[in-house]
Amino acid sequence: MKNQMRKLLLLIYILPTQFFSQESPIEEYLTKVEHLDHKGCVKSIFVEDAKFDKNEEKIDYLSKTYKVIYDNRGRIRKQLIYWKDLQNPFKITTYDTLNRVSKVEINRDDGNGEILIPYFRDDLKDPDSIKTFSLEMKERRKYINYFKNGLVIRRDLFENDTLRYYTLFEYDSNNHLSKELNINTKDGFGVINKLGNSTTKYLNKNDSTLYNYREVGDTIIIDRERHKGLVVTEKSYENDDVIINIEKQTSTARGFTFQTRTNFKWKDSTKIEYKYYKDKDDLKSYTNTYIYEDKIISEWMNYIGQPEQQDVTDIKTTFDNKGNWISKTFIRNNVVVEEIRRTIDYCEKLH
Prior knowledge:
Elements: E1 8-14, E2 42-51, E3 64-70, E4 76-82, E5 91-95, E6 101-106, E7 114-119, E8 129-133, E9 139-148, E10 151-159, E11 162-171, E12 177-184, E13 190-195, E14 198-203, E15 207-216, E16 219-225, E17 230-238, E18 243-251, E19 256-265, E20 270-279, E21 282-291, E22 295-301, E23 309-319, E24 325-332, E25 335-346
Parallel strand pairs: 1-16
Antiparallel strand pairs: 1-17, 2-3, 2-25, 3-4, 4-5, 5-6, 6-7, 7-8, 8-9, 9-10, 10-11, 11-12, 12-15, 13-14, 15-16, 17-18, 18-19, 19-20, 20-21, 21-22, 22-23, 23-24, 24-25
């Protein structure tokens, strides 16, 4: 990494009331997993992340249990998400050698599970189509992508062989996305009202998102606009010492920034800073969180002028003989609030 400031990214967009994105529909089926940092060659990492209330009773809906399986080149091949039964995963996600999702299997208690399968062509990152099935492999839904010069220019959604809606994508001369247009068909999504013997369906409005890319010096500016209302500005930059991400939320109606978040990431620590404003440059409250290897310090003021409050969470970490951590216990006010345990299966040594 060169010892100079990286190119600054500035993102400005208007938040929509309903979100459509060029992100693949696959993203909706994935579960975020954490705590996978490790040294050396591993075959799998099993993680139990338990959170507790003030009485040290486990909070089930906030706790997570999962297992990640790697191939011999360190690539994730499978992700197993558990809920109540540690013998039978609730969700199994399989990846191919290009790190693309090749299958997602969801098993629900009520038996109404689902299977998602993307169908890829060559080494494209986007699939030609995505299909979802019941556990009996009865097709429920399918997305079809249409390409031009390797870019998705249209995506159709079918249910029961009926086109519900489609999205058109346009690009600028540098292949940056410049427009998304979402169009409901006559069989599209909306609201159904029943009154007596009559039924009325109101389709959701078609909508579009416009993008504009430009460079000003070392700054890349991306404008994304869908509806007037809330403007979010994001900046990110880094050098050899720190990575900084800044987000500002501005009300176009009221004409001032009412919330900012700044994340500072150093090699051995992190600071997360939130500020809330009641008027232009008139700070109402703030929260600062400092994350170190052995503790987390939180400072906040609910209203400016009141005394600052502080919480300290101690982190006790245990390591295995390979130098990888296998447990972290978070203690606040002498109460365990979180405990993360990892079981690491290492690669066998070749003789």
